[in-house]
Write a structure and sequence with these properties.
Number of strands: 18
Number of domains: 2
Mean pLDDT: 94
CATH architecture of the largest domain: 3-Layer(bba) Sandwich
CATH superfamily of the largest domain: FAD/NAD(P)-binding domain
Distance between the termini: 48 Å
Number of helices: 8
Low-confidence stretches: none
Order of helices and strands: EHEEHEHEHEEHEEEEEEEEHEEEHH
CATH topology of the largest domain: FAD/NAD(P)-binding domain
Bound molecules: flavin-adenine dinucleotide
Shape: globular
Radius of gyration: 21 Å
Largest sheet: 8 strands, mixed
């Protein structure tokens, strides 16, 4: 026996930050929602990340950068009021973030990106030289060349935020079923009618695919690429102004932040055990990957060389072909909505959950335009992936891929 209703208005697949935020914004409007999660709420990437809230990550000099900022800035506005709104402390702090240049060439690149961002109207972003960076963050290595700094970035506890959204959604009447995998969609005459889950079937007016790295299981028409990431956490230490940071000390990205409890959470793109696309779903952590990440960490923060690592884990994120999320109706299948393709999420998921909900309850009218996220923007293009990839390789590859609409 189970208590899963046979019918509802909206079914959401996936209990991560996107699925739970959509459940909250929809149920708050009085809409009947059922959310299905195959494991526990927040057991996917949303419970396995670094919690860094960075509004303009990445260094590519493309107009897409400015397009993204419209959404990530709106996301920050949501975060600023969300503790009160959800009545839950999810450890949000606006500590600032630094994108660190480890070489003169990188510093020149950051100079160009920052100048371009300013031309595009980003008044907050700053370029700091080595001394200014160390004034801000005294424990950073004197060898670094400078950074790109944003004061309103920060960090949060994503597991807590995801659960806070889920709990508030439940208060508004949403029904949340964990450990209930969706096995298939019910589709008739190119219209989605509901889902098949492990206990039977449920029908709905609209089904939302918020399964991120697993999204292609339900909507193979849209290429969403899984990509494994891993994270490491240290013992708590004295709080110091290390902000939220990212850097490429040896060409591979390392990121990190010190969280409210004093633990430092950092990570780097793993390289071991990634022979096939399926390997990106395996949550194994390899000691050789940890060693490399720790070496990169010590290069940046030599004063912290004796700090102990206490835990590590891995999770899977998702890239679309242009690394922007996909939000909208799946071409050719009525009432099937996708909200997935999040390589990073803290600066994205709350606003995209809200826009996704508006798209449904306002019948396509949203408070910010969502055409750049249209699932049909790739036409029928399917890209062959590099045979072996990690986060850094995939990001570089997608930056070079030209997406052609047809
Ligand atoms: C190691 C690591 C570090 C990261 N660090 C950061 C960071 O510092 N800052 C940042 O912004 N982002 C970071 N991210 C990325 C961020 O975590 C994701 O972008 C974000 O959590 C995506 O949320 P989501 O809800 O789309 O996906 P998920 O949280 O993965 O949710 C999708 C859910 O769908 C469920 N699901 C899949 N298939 C089914 C099915 N058949 N039936 C039911 N449910 C199903 C999954 O179990 C999962 O819970 C990091 C990710 C990782 C892995």
């Amino acid at each position: 026996m189970n208590n899963i209703p046979d019918n509802t208005e909206i079914i959401i697949i996936g209990g991560g930050l996107v699925g739970c935020s959509m459940a909250y914004y929809l149920s708050r409007e009085g809409i009947d929602v059922m959310l299905f999660e195959m494991r526990n709420i927040s057991s996917g990437a949303s419970g396995r990340n670094g919690g860094m809230v960075v509004q303009t990550d990445g260094r590519e000099i493309q107009t897409i950068q400015s397009k993204r900022f419209l959404y990530t800035r709106a996301n920050n506005k949501i975060l600023e009021n969300l503790t009160e709104e959800l009545d839950y402390d999810f450890e949000y702090e606006q500590t600032g973030s630094i994108d660190i240049a480890c070489s003169e060439a990188e510093y020149e690149q950051l100079k160009k990106v920052t100048a371009l961002q300013k031309i595009m109207g980003d008044e907050e972003i700053q370029l700091l030289d080595s001394k200014e960076t160390r004034d801000l963050c005294p424990i950073i290595s004197p060898n670094i060349k400078g950074c790109r700094y944003r004061a309103s970035d920060g960090s949060l506890n994503s597991n807590k935020l995801t659960n806070a959204y889920a709990m508030k959604a439940k208060e508004y009447g949403a029904k949340i079923f964990s450990f209930t995998p969706i096995l298939d969609l019910l589709i008739k005459d190119n219209v989605v009618k509901g889902v098949k889950h492990i206990h039977g079937k449920s029908t709905a007016k609209i089904v939302v695919n918020a399964a991120n790295a697993w999204a292609s299981t339900f909507t193979p028409q849209i290429q969403i690429i899984p990509c494994k990431g891993s994270a490491i956490v240290t013992e708590p230490t004295t709080r110091f102004p290390a902000l939220v940071w990212e850097a490429y000390p040896d060409g591979t990205m390392i990121w990190g932040a010190q969280h409210k409890g004093g633990n430092i959470l950092f990570g780097s793109a793993p390289e071991c055990g990634l022979e096939s696309v399926e390997d990106h779903y395996k949550e194994t952590v390899y000691p050789a990957d940890i060693d490399k990440a720790v070496k990169r960490f010590i290069t940046l923060f030599p004063a912290l060389k004796d700090i102990s690592v206490i835990r590590s884990w891995a999770g899977t994120v998702a890239f679309s072909l242009d690394a922007l999320p996909c939000l909208g109706v799946i071409p050719g299948i009525s009432n099937l909505v996708i909200n997935a393709g999040f390589p990073v999420g803290m600066s994205w998921c709350p606003i995209m959950g809200k826009l996704g909900a508006e798209f449904i309850y306002n019948e396509g009218v949203t408070s910010l335009p969502i055409d750049i996220f249209s699932p049909s923007r790739f036409g029928h293009v399917v890209k062959t992936l590099p045979s072996k990839y990690n986060y850094t390789i995939l990001q570089d590859y997608l930056n070079q891929v030209e997406v052609m609409e047809n």
